[in-house]
Amino acid sequence: MSYSQLTPKLFACRQSMELAKKIAKEYGEELGNVKITPFSDGEFQPAFEESVRGRRVFIIGSTFPTADNLMEMLLMLDAAKRASARHITAVMPYFGWARQDRKDKPRVAIGAKLVANLLQAAGATRIMTMDLHADQIQGFFEKPVDHLYASTIFMQYIESLQLENVTIASPDMGGSKRAYAYSKYLASDVVICYKQRKKANVIEHMELIGEVEGKNVILVDDMIDTGGTLTRAADLMVERGAKSVRAICTHPILSGDAYEKIQNSKLTELIVSDTIPLKKDISKIKVVSCAPLFADVMHKVQENTSISDKFLM
């Protein structure tokens, strides 16, 4: 039997265990056994409980803070490399530290580039992720990167709502490209929110570029952290006459009092994927699973077939 015919092995980091189980079920394989040995000082050591020699290995884990989640992915990659796995794919539905993609002021780190270097040094021969905060992060790697778009799963949900007079909105200037891609598919108008910040996560002023009166507005973004921008944008749009305001955010970081902000805002609903597990369930949050998308692309990677049909935008 050739190496390409060997069944791949799927393993999960602890922070993404629930998503990994869904991906494995969609893929049609059981998750491999990993034993995590903790030490009293907080260190931990992962060990594969089965052979991976000569196999393609998929290690599934989002790298949202704390840094232990990134460290667990790195240790799993290193363990697979030292166990003679033939191909090692880091399946990172959420690529953490991606907001640090450039030097936006003097004497700061470029965290996304550092993480890329660490993943490759640890043994990753391929990266699979979804909705990077900045597309250029793909160029930080010398290995293949499968950058998937959550629009392929969200668009089905949007169409199921059968909304009329839809307008796509971006919560900031940086997300205009994503908004225009959605609007092109839906043949809708686009609204851009212009905001000025006092500091990170604190908005001083926000204004709308475009009309929302009588429209069903859908805000699109790659992530939601504190929820301040989205909830303020939703409230402003309702004040300007929007019929309804929904938000689509791929990665639900939802830190601080984000859940309370969302529940108390004028958002009709917040639609997210399961790249990051929710800390609590509230009525306004709808989760659409990305597991079928990742499982399908993993199959195509194993079979060396094209994944271009997965790029809706």
UniProtKB/TrEMBL annotation:
It comes from the Bacteria. GO terms for biological process: 5-phosphoribose 1-diphosphate biosynthetic process; purine nucleotide biosynthetic process; ribonucleoside monophosphate biosynthetic process. Its EC number is 2.7.6.1. Keywords: ATP-binding, Kinase, Magnesium, Metal-binding, Nucleotide biosynthesis, Nucleotide-binding, Transferase. Residues 9-123 form the Ribose-phosphate pyrophosphokinase N-terminal domain. One of its GO terms (cellular component) is cytoplasm. It is an enzyme of class 2 (transferase). One of its GO terms (molecular function) is ribose phosphate diphosphokinase activity. This is ribose-phosphate diphosphokinase. It comes from Tenacibaculum jejuense.
